[in-house]
Amino acid sequence: MPKILIKNGLNAGKAIINSWASMFKAGLKLLVPYLVFFQLFVAPSSAADVSNESKLSIATASNFRPVLEQLRAAFFQQINNKEKNYQINISSASSGVIYAQILQGAPFQLFFSANTSFPEKLVASGHGMADTLVTYAIGKLVLVSRNKNNGSGSANPAEILFKAKRIAIANPRTAPYGIAAMEVIESLGVVDESKPKLVVGNNIAQAWQFFHSGNADVAIVAASLMSSPGQAEFKQEGISAIDLSPYLKHPVRQSLVATKPVGQLAQQFLGFMKTPTAKKIIVDGGYLLSPSDDYLTQ
Amino acid sequence: MSVNLNLNSLMDLSVKYVPSGDSNFSLALKVKLPSSGITAVYGPSGCGKTSLLRCIAGLAEAEHCQLSIGEHAIGDLPVTKRQLGYVFQEDRLFPHLSVEGNLDFAYKRRFSDEGPSKHEVIEWLDIEALLNRKPDQLSGGQKQRVAIARSLLTAPRCLLLDEPLAGVDSKARTPILFHLETVAANLDIPMIYVSHNLDEIIRLANHLIIMDQGQLVADGPLLNMLSRLDLELAQQENAAVVLNTRIAGHDGDYSLTHLAWGDSENGSLIIGQLPGAIGERVRVRIPCRDVSIALEEPNQSSILNVLPGVISDIELVDGARAIVKTEVAGQSILARITRMSLECLQLEKGKAVFLQIKTVALLSEHQ
Amino acid sequence: MNLLSSDIAALWLTLQLAAVTTIILMVIGAPLAWWLARSTSRFASVIEAMVALPLILPPTVIGFYLLIAFSPDNFLGGSWLALTGQSLAFTFSGLVIGSVIYSLPFVVQPLQSGFQSFDHKLLEAAETMGSGSFDRFFNLIIPLTRRAFATAALLGFAHTMGEFGVVLMIGGNIPGETQVLSIALYDHVEALDYQRAHWLAAGLLIFSFVLLVFLYGFNRNKGIRAG
């Protein structure tokens, strides 16, 4: 039976390859003239030129995206980009995924991570430019709950966690805010009571979604979520947010790094990040600024 | 088989049906049929024969369909409760079961215990050798035999057959006709046989219903219907009459058998030797085109069967032909001749003539 | 090889989810597919479209709306809570509901196709033999549409095994309860634990492949044509 299987498999494979080959040949006949035409008359100047001079691609941890978009808009205003000569593309994903992609050669020039270890790793591996590594924001952790569930309006996080039915957090294994959430739970001393009630979202956005949809009555998320444009109205819905920073020994330091080679536009943008305009946008977005980092607080 | 209508054993059939899609066609029929033996339904295609059967079975939703078989009135019963057997034009055997499996399927669901046994049915249809085969391993004729057998095993009160031999090639048909005769002889239920094949009908039926465009044209015992000149039946290519005879004697020297009817002086036929006792009943079929008419008794002719008779009716078929009906010892024989001969011989009603019969076909091996 | 207990728990959970979902789908799906195959009402095409939706909708859309529906403040979540005292989100029951919707077309469509190609003349013949609806269904239709049933069951099962988007939205990633294989795999990738990721990914790939080989082999051999 195996012999027949292999023989059939080979025959099938040959047939498939033959049909693909003939399709390919047919396609080529159409494609070649088009390509020639395109190259001669239509194609813009080569990619290398574009990326360094007028195009910048940034990859950011998803939680920072709304703020980064505001930063981009302010930056364009500052350099007067009315002609739209300059382009900044923003991709967002979880920091781990971006890190892995950059290792595989993804063409991101700036990486805004939700932690510091990934940018450090990139510097260590030679992908990242050491002197561009800087903490751009510190995440503010908050405990959100609905006032109606919270009965007495308690401001005691341990009590709220204790009474909660379902606690939504980001994945403590993979998301910086999840790690931080677990740290807070431990330092509050309610690990055993909380663990069975934990529901883990992929990231804080999903943890927030669990809470928002009513399926989780309590969530530990980043304050920046509550500041994002879409969530403004929910502040009125009787949601209270308790700052958890006092209970967090290791704040969530979000750092960025530029990948080699660092282009001109990237330099310009990094410069912009130091300005007061940029700092205000970051703080308004629900983040803290790094006090120990003189670089940003000037 | 009795030729006379026994009024005590008649069923009333009444059907009214208008198919939902086709507003041009409607079926309305009221007729009496014998409650045993084979009743054939004959007519051109599209006349509604199949619709009639489907209405009786309940497969088509008739406005109104009434039939009482004994005390069993099928009236408004759902299909599953009508207790009728149906043999379709296609065999419709269940492909996942063997022949025996198909038979068992029917037998397990039989309506009563008064029907034939598996063994009997297998014998009548001669399907013993096929029991372990699957339907896709059978020929068309074999499949239909199994289908007929299967339909009998539910102990139906009436068997409906819708052109069962239409899809069977001609060589295979004859044995199946034989099997059907066996079944009819052994079962006391009415069988309604739809066909547009006159040969089959002549062979099998003892009662005939003729339909056209959804209406009843004529009905009656087969023998009577065959010799009626007012029906189109007599004008068919293979028109024939059927005679009821009995064996009068055997001629061992020449291997011939003498048949007779009526007063047996005029009513006699000579055919090839038959097994059978004196007095045993035999049905024969005489094709109209094989009968010719003479005004005088031909003396020196190789044709053995020359019968005197009196012309009772004449009908012109078309410009060239005519049919002449002659009474011989109480039964009618039709002859198809040319109009020219008709006029040359000055044939007319009441004239005494001689019939020369070239072909006498036996309708069954035994009766 | 580092098959930690959570991976085994994920595997076991996934198998259970697939099995329960498939059973429910076969029971709901067969009559639905039968009706769709035979119905002449215009309403049928609406139902057909609804059944086919999960084929083209991103699973995240299904998950998104399910999360809303599961909320204790809404009808579905609320009544479930009242009836059973449990929430629907983040539970196995919630996953089952999500999987049933997600894999519905994979079960209904092969069944419907099988029923449609079934020769209804055989049913007429059976009817005249006194065979009622249930009898015809179990003794005639099912044996003759074995291939369709096998395809439906195996596809439903395999498809649920690989479910990701819906579970991601409503599962809550609870080990032993809602952390199915695909979520565990995603977790490993996020945590950069590629070795464990490889084990799960390869395992799932091989399992699915073997299942499909078995299915297509079975269908080829059992060349039963109805009518």
Secondary structure topology:
The complex is a heterotrimer of chains A (298), B (367) and C (227).
Chain A: H1 2-42, H2 47-53, E1 55-61, H3 65-78, E2 87-93, H4 95-103, E3 110-112, H5 117-125, E4 134-139, E5 141-146, H6 157-163, E6 167-170, H7 176-188, H8 191-194, E7 198-201, H9 204-212, E8 218-222, H10 223-227, E9 239-243, E10 252-258, H11 264-273, H12 276-284, H13 294-297
Parallel strand pairs in A: 1-2, 1-3, 6-7, 6-8
Antiparallel strand pairs in A: 3-10, 4-10, 5-8, 5-9
Helix pairs in contact in A: 3-12
Chain B: E1 10-17, E2 27-34, E3 37-42, H1 49-57, E4 64-69, E5 72-73, E6 84-87, H2 99-108, H3 118-125, H4 140-152, E7 158-162, H5 170-186, E8 190-195, H6 198-204, E9 207-212, E10 215-221, H7 222-226, E11 240-251, E12 256-260, E13 268-272, E14 281-287, E15 291-294, E16 305-316, E17 321-328, E18 331-338, H8 339-344, E19 352-357, E20 361-362
Parallel strand pairs in B: 3-8, 3-9, 6-7, 7-8
Antiparallel strand pairs in B: 1-2, 1-4, 4-5, 9-10, 11-12, 11-14, 12-13, 14-20, 15-19, 16-17, 16-19, 17-18
Helix pairs in contact in B: 2-4, 3-4, 4-5
Chain C: H1 5-38, H2 43-56, H3 59-70, H4 75-84, H5 92-116, H6 120-128, H7 133-144, H8 146-161, H9 165-170, H10 181-190, H11 194-221
Describe this structure in words.
The complex is a heterotrimer of chains A (298), B (367) and C (227). With 298 residues, chain A is of the alpha/beta class. Chain A has 13 helices and ten strands. Chain A folds into three domains: 1-43; 48-137 and 255-297, 3-Layer(aba) Sandwich (D-Maltodextrin-Binding Protein, domain 2); 139-247, D-Maltodextrin-Binding Protein, domain 2. In chain A, the strands form two sheets. Chain A has a five-stranded mixed beta sheet with strand order 2-1-3-10-4, with helices on both faces. Chain B has 367 residues and is α+β, with helices and mostly antiparallel strands. Chain B is built from eight helices and 20 strands. Residues 1-7 of chain B have low confidence and may be disordered. Chain B has two domains: 7-226, P-loop containing nucleotide triphosphate hydrolases (Rossmann fold, 3-Layer(aba) Sandwich), CATH 3.40.50; 240-362, RNA polymerase II/Efflux pump adaptor protein, barrel-sandwich hybrid domain (OB fold (Dihydrolipoamide Acetyltransferase, E2P)), CATH 2.40.50. Chain B has helices at residues 49-57, 99-108, 118-125, 140-152, 170-186, 198-204, 222-226, 339-344, and strands at residues 10-17, 27-34, 37-42, 64-69, 72-73, 84-87, 158-162, 190-195, 207-212, 215-221, 240-251, 256-260, 268-272, 281-287, 291-294, 305-316, 321-328, 331-338, 352-357, 361-362. The radius of gyration of chain B is 22 Å and the shape is globular. In chain C, 43% of the residues are buried. Chain C has helices at residues 5-38, 43-56, 59-70, 75-84, 92-116, 120-128, 133-144, 146-161, 165-170, 181-190, 194-221. Chain C has a single domain, classed as MetI-like fold (Orthogonal Bundle), CATH 1.10.3720.
